[in-house]
Structures are given as structure tokens and as C-alpha cells.
Amino acid sequence: MPAQTVASRAVPPRPDMSVILVTGSYDHEIRFWEAWSGICSRTIARGGESGQVNRLAISPDKRFLAAAIHKKVNIYDIANPSSQPIITFEGHTGNITSVCFHSEGKWLVTGSEDGTIKIWDLRSTNVHRNYDNEAPVNDVIVHPNQGELISCDQAGRLKQWDLSENICTHELTPAGDTPMRSISLASDGSCLVAGNVKGKCFVWKINEERSDLPRFQAVTKFQAHGKYLTRLLLSPDVKYLATCSADTTVKVWSLSPKYEFKLEKVLTGHQRWVWDCAFSADSAYLVTASSDHTARLWEMASGETVRQYSGHHKAAVCCALHDGAG
User: Fold this and answer.
1) Cα distance between residue 17 and residue 233, in whole Å
2) Which of 321, 289, 297 is nearest to 27 (CA)?
3) pLDDT tens column, 239-248
């Protein structure tokens, strides 16, 4: 997402159709937005279907949108204006809390309050793999090596799942049984950050080279928020960490080569809980979704709101942004 001057913000440039910005809400709607104009260009209204939209993910090639809707995942063709999904994955018995694509877009991973992690093949509607986590799953991410998953759960655990061996190979419990809410892994696989419901963040350096050292080496921990932490995310360039909270703020932390975190900015403007966030590919912008029914686009350099996206009738709880190369 290219940087914009102050003057150019007054007259938004022609919408860049290569930028895909999507939000989901408890109002059962999924909205696509023109990032710079703030105009809603498309709405997927789900009518009488039960269950809110919990999480969103855009495939790496920008062809598909995965929407976690209560106990199922709908896959939409982004280029097709139809509101009907092209695939629906069903099999979870509890609320789906996490969804993300494999780097080549061939499969999808989901985590759920039913205590399972499932891998779905996009060429079929069947579950490809199923892992029993034994506790409600709050977040799941795919390792950059595409051969491992890392999850966090309501029992306070982080787990690493080896896809080749089909087993859990590592388990961490950084704060006892305090639920771990969100995790983020550096794009280069160098470090892992996790946040719990009490607003505390934990950081590990990941050892990929030396067998004589533990895979996860605890580096630091810090109190990010005084209230419930909802989501955290490392920027693509691994220079910043964004943390979202029930305290209505988003905090931006700078990351040093020694994995030390310094508070750089507090993004204020949302009126209620901030539930989700997504960075632009160049790490210069951040999108957030809030219970105040809006999403916002923030400029990282200034900490100011560039655009506000208004249209949802209930809490906006998830967002997805893809402005990189397809």
C-alpha cells in the first residue's frame, strides 16, 4: 500500500483494485471496502443464517476469501459478485476462532472452541487432518516453513504441531492456566509472540539451527494492556508489534534485534473493544476492527487515522487486508 501525502488524502486517489480490504461483523455481514475512498464496494449479506462472522482470511493469490461463520467456513470467489460461497467446510461442533491459508493456497487450517484443529483441502469438502487439542483453541498460525502449525488455547498452552509427523512436538505454558488469546510468528520464523487475556505478552526466540538448544527460548515478557488483550500481530518487516485490547486502544511496539519491545504509539479513536488488526504488505499501514461498528486505517508513521469504514450495524470483529503481489 503506497504512502500517501497529507495533500493527497484530501482527494483520495483512484481506488487501487489490487488492494483487498474486508471486514466481518456480528451483524452477519461481510463488507469489501475501497481502501482509500472508504466506500463499501460489496456486501455479502447472509440473511437469516445463524452465527456471526468470527475470522477472515484472504488467499495468497487473492482469489478466495475464507470466512469463519460460527461452526463452518465459507469460501467465496473474490472476483465473483455472488454472495453464495463456492465451498463450505462443515465439521466443527463449536465456534470457529481461527482461519488461515497455506502459502500456496492449497489448504486451510481452522481452530475452534470445540478443542480441535482441522486442515481442509480446498479441492474437496472433506477434513484432510484433525488434531485434538483437548481445550478450546483461540488462535492457530501456519509456520513460514509451511510444515508446522502453532496454536494457543483456553488452557493457557501454546503447541507446535508437526504436519509431517502428524503430532504435537512442543508445548509451552507461559502463564499457568491463564488463557492464551493470540499468537504471531515473525515472517522469517525468528520469533514468536503470544498474548493472554490479562494483557500480558510473552516472546520466544525460535532456534532452527542448533539441536543442543531448546526450540523455543524465552526472551522477555511485558504488560501490554491493563485489560483483556484480543489480538496481537507482528508486522511483515518484523519491526513492529500491534496489540489490540478491550481498553479501546491499539498499541504499537517497536522490536529491536535483541527482541526488546518499546512502546512507540498508542492508537486512539475507537470507542469500544478493538478485536482484530491487519498490516499492509509494506508495514506502513494498519487496519483495525472494533465493537464500535467501524474499522479504521491507520498510518503507522504518524499514528493517525487515514480512513474510517462505517456501515456495519453491530460490532466489527474481524478484518483482512491483502495489498501485496498476488
Assistant:
1) 25
2) 289
3) 999 999 999 9
pLDDT-based confidence at residue 4 (cuts at 50, 70, 90): very low
- Burial zone of 91 (CB within 10 Å; 0-12 exposed, 13-18 middle, 19+ buried): middle
Amino acid (one-letter) located at 255 = L
**In terms of Cα–Cα distance, which of 295, 268, 183, 297 is closest to 232?**
183
Q: Are strands 167-172 and 180-185 parallel, antiparallel or unpaired?
A: unpaired
**133-171: b (≥16 Cβ within 10 Å) or e:** bebbbbbbbbbeeeebbbbbbbbbbbbbbebeeeebeee
Closest CA to 277 of 108, 105, 55: 55
pLDDT digits (tens, 9 = 90+) for 188-197: 999 999 999 9
* Spatial CB neighbours of 47, under 8 Å, sequence gap ≥ 6: 28
Identity at 244, one-letter amino acid code? C
Cα dihedral 77, 80, 86, 91 sign: positive
User: Under a CB-based contact definition with an 8 Å cutoff, are residues 108 and 94 in contact?
Assistant: no
pTM of the model: 0.92
